């Protein structure tokens, strides 16, 4: 299995996929830091961790589905393009293992993106000299929120990207996912929870309240988020297993 | 020659169901925009203008550029397969015809999408019970949006022609959309293709190009971009070797 994963790394050695994902993320980071700096210069009390995390959580709903769709499509499409499926499966490796290797490769990539994002949030807060100390626990919760949601979406995108040779479908799904992820907060929570993409903002440890005239940041209780995390993890496992079983049985 | 190339492009698109995309995006944007308008009627008091700000925000700011990127990547996708680059480059047709036929096909699809979006906006407003007359600027927003979309299409076509991967140009398009929003915020919108869409469709500020001079500048900028991107793409097609 380790060999299968290392082969995935080998296949991508000149493809700059990490660079692409990091640049993708940097654009989001620069954009949000610009926005945050403007908001702080207008109103100095806006310099707090909660505001920063909320901004990132809502933007992630848009960015991650598209970033994952693009990355996973590249990882899977290379086998369609090179017509290598038959070749791969004639080696002494099971289809399920190829599927797992690709999934793990994609997850490591997304994990890298999540780590860079959380580190840049921390760095921004420290550089801007936020009054409160670094909220390590809040950032860890935020980190796991995006990682778990991404695991489920990677599984879904991989299934679609491998099932359909035509990557338009996978990319369109990513686009629709981004759409839902961005607008999830506007939908009633019962409706938005059906969609896996809504969990980027749904699992954010900080939420926004519009009830009073001023915007309030509410730090969510961990116990309230645990069931949602469980749902996402179960979704990730079921989508992965469904995809792996479906495609392992399919004729190449 | 160009007409025959356009016809060939349409033949390539037969049975691809790409037209489904043309319906989905405007429909979803208008539904979510209308829903948001309905929920926030207390704040959004400018009837058709407020509704436009809601529906066009979701449609034009991020998803229209991605949609254009998908369309353009899809049009080049076939050429990257089965050594089709060799076929198309040895066919007795000019590089101009190849590129512009694709641009015309994308343009016609975008016309449909913009028209459908306008129609849905009208019906959405009527369903929400808006009684005042439709904004006179509506046609201008749609037309300028279409022109900016054409500018973005030229860029995306050039990218997808060069990059073999289907997904990478779409990722670049998405990043450019975010950059475009940033450029718009720091008032350099006229210098970036994706910001032109924000300005032209009046997404964030519906009266941003009311004067004649601004209008003219807007069209000139779009024209310049379309010209430069097409020129670079066609030059590249003529001069560099294809790898099929």
Percent strand of chain B equals under 5%
Largest interface: A-B, 33 and 34 residues
SSE arrangement of chain B, N to C? HHHHHHHHH
Biggest sheet layout of chain B: none
CA-to-CA gap between the ends of chain B? Answer: 24 Å
Order of strands, main sheet of chain A, comes to 1-2
- The low-confidence runs of chain B, each spanning 5 or more residues with pLDDT under 50, are none
Count of DSSP-assigned helices of chain A: 10
Name the assembly state.
heterodimer
Calculate the mean pLDDT score of chain B and round it: 89
What is the helix fraction of residues of chain B, given as a range?
over 70%
Helix/strand structural class of chain A: mainly alpha
Encode the helix/strand succession of chain A as letters: HHHHHHHHHEEH
Instruction: Tell me the number of structural domains of chain A.
Output: 1
Q: How would you portray this structure in words?
A:
The complex is a heterodimer of chains A (252) and B (244). Chain A is built from ten helices and two strands, in the order αααααααααββα. With 252 residues, chain A is mainly alpha-helical. Chain A has one domain (2-249). A two-stranded antiparallel sheet of chain A has the order 1-2. The mean pLDDT of chain A is 89. Chain B is globular, with a radius of gyration of 19 Å. Chain B has one domain (2-239). The mean pLDDT of chain B is 89. Chain B contains nine helices and no strands. The A-B interface holds A 20, 23-24, 27-28, 30-31, 34-35, 38, 62, 66-67, 69-71, 73-74, 77, 81, 166-168, 171-172, 175-176, 178-179, 182-183, 186-187 and B 16, 18, 21, 24-25, 28-29, 32, 35-36, 39, 58, 62-63, 66-67, 70, 73-74, 77, 164-168, 170-171, 174-175, 178-179, 181-182, 185.
């Amino acid at each position: 299995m380790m060999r299968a994963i290392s082969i995935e790394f080998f296949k991508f050695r000149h493809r700059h996929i990490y660079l692409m994902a990091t640049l993708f993320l940097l654009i989001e980071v620069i954009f949000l830091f610009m926005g945050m700096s403007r908001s702080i210069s207008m109103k100095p009390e806006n310099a707090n961790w909660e505001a920063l995390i909320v901004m990132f959580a809502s933007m992630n709903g848009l960015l991650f589905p598209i970033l994952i769709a693009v990355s996973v499509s590249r990882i899977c499409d290379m086998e369609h393009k090179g017509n290598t499926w038959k070749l791969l499966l004639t080696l002494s490796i099971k289809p399920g293992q190829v599927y797992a290797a690709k999934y793990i490769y994609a997850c490591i990539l997304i994990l890298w993106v999540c780590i860079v994002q959380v580190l840049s949030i921390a760095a921004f807060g420290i550089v801007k000299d936020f009054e409160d100390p670094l909220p390590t626990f809040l950032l860890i919760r935020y980190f796991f929120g995006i990682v778990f949601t991404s695991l489920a979406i990677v599984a879904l995108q991989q299934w679609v990207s491998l099932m359909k040779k035509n990557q338009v479908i996978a990319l369109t799904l990513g686009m629709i996912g981004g759409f839902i992820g961005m607008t999830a907060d506007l939908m009633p929570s019962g409706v938005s929870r059906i969609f896996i993409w809504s969990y980027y903002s749904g699992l954010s440890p900080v939420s926004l309240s519009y009830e009073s005239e001023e915007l309030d940041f509410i730090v969510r209780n961990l116990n309230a988020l645990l069931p949602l995390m469980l749902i996402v993890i179960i979704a990730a496992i079921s989508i992965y297993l469904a995809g792996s079983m479906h495609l392992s049985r399919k004729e190449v | 020659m160009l007409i025959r190339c356009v016809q060939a492009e349409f033949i390539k698109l037969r049975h691809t169901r790409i037209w489904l995309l043309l319906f989905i995006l405007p429909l979803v944007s208008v539904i979510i925009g209308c829903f948001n308008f309905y929920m926030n009627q207390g704040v959004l008091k400018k009837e058709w203008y407020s509704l436009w700000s809601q529906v066009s925000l979701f449609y034009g700011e991020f998803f229209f550029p991605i949609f254009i990127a998908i369309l353009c990547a899809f049009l080049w996708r076939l050429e990257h397969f089965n050594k089709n680059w060799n076929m198309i480059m040895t066919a007795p047709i000019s590089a101009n015809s190849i590129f512009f036929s694709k641009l015309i096909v994308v343009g016609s699809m975008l016309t449909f999408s913009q028209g459908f979006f306008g129609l849905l906006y009208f019906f959405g407003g009527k369903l929400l019970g808006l009684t005042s007359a439709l904004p006179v600027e509506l046609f201008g927003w749609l037309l300028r949006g279409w022109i900016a979309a054409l500018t973005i299409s030229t860029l995306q076509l050039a990218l997808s022609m060069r990059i073999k991967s289907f997904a990478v140009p779409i990722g670049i398009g998405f990043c450019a959309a975010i950059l475009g929003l940033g450029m718009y915020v720091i008032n350099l919108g006229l210098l970036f293709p994706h910001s032109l869409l924000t300005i032209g469709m009046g997404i964030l500020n519906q009266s941003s190009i009311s004067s004649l001079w601004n209008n003219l500048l807007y069209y000139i900028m779009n024209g310049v971009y379309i010209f430069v991107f097409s020129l670079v793409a066609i030059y590249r097609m003529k001069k560099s070797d294809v790898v099929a």
